Amino acid sequence: MKIIYRYILSELIQPFLFGVFAFTSIFIGSDVLRRLAGLMMDYGASLWTVIQLFFLSLPQIIIFTFPMSMLLATLLAFGRLSGDSEITALRAGGISFTKLIIPVLIVAFLVSGLTVLLSDTLVPFSIQVYEDLVWEIRQGEQRPTTQENLRISPVDSDTGRLDFVLVADKFDGATQTLEGVSWQDFEDGELVTIIQAKKAVWLEEQWQFIDGKIYQIEDDGRVPQTEFERLNMQDKITRDPGDVSRSGTDPDEMTLAELREHIGQMEEEGRDVSELLITYHQRYAVPFASFIFAIVGAPLGLKPNRSGSSIGLGLSIIVVFIYYVLMTVGSALGQAGTVAPWLGAWLQNIVFAGVGIWLLAKKH
Fold this sequence. Notes:
Elements: H1 2-43, H2 47-83, H3 86-92, H4 97-100, H5 102-120, H6 122-139, E1 146-152, E2 164-172, E3 177-187, E4 190-203, E5 206-216, E6 225-232, H7 241-246, H8 256-268, H9 274-300, H10 309-336, H11 341-363
Antiparallel strand pairs: 1-2, 2-3, 3-4, 4-5, 5-6
Helix pairs in contact: 1-2, 1-5, 2-5, 2-6, 2-9, 2-10, 5-9, 8-9, 9-11, 10-11
């Protein structure tokens, strides 16, 4: 059995690598090269910078081409084995089709795991560096680390009312400083304290307000005032500079852990996080498509007259097109609240898994 498994895997590797190259080339030719050429012609980007941008574009493309390539490889491998009657001979020898696809499913699962790992490490880093370079090309300066008109307003989970409101004119991520900062404390929905300061600095693992005033709101409406030069806010503000900075960061530039924490903070502020939740779940769902496509591709590859590479490539494109149509529909339903965000993100995988299992049952 081990010899048969090695033989099937040898049939799988070559078309998989071919698929990675072919689908990546399609993405590069249809989008990446056009954008890079525009940067050279419109902004005078140097050849070295364009080369860097080219390679920085590859990780986020490969995330999508791996599932496509696994589908193509499965179709071509089983199509070739079926076309040469090798599948028939193996099944006549007492080896079921279910056993024949076990090595393919194992490889597909490993590819899915590798894709999740890349999407959580290399992809966010490459996107961030790519955007930094593009900003520098277009603006002639480094991408700013500042945010204007910052506002953080979490809700108390026990009462469902405002916990506090933090407002700042500007946040500088490089110096970890808030400028023109105001903090308003609420109890049972009622404003009880206002603290205003010229700036707040992150020192010794806490925010320290510099040069400000404290206003205590009393029941009779009086507002006593206290001035201070430095005030520690350790027990009042739990968000560190990384949390503050993430509020202005694109989700694609975050790792899964950072995105999960960002979603939690947005939920604390009572914001709609459906889109973010869909993005989070798709970071798992899209890589897992490699495994799903292997389930679908194996029985489809056994259909008559499908051993040719051109037919296999065409069928792959059709299946992938349907997959991404379903993914778009699922995302729209999730954002609209028609279905849960996780279901919207995984809808296409659920549908294709059902189809694949049905096809496998027919071939059993």
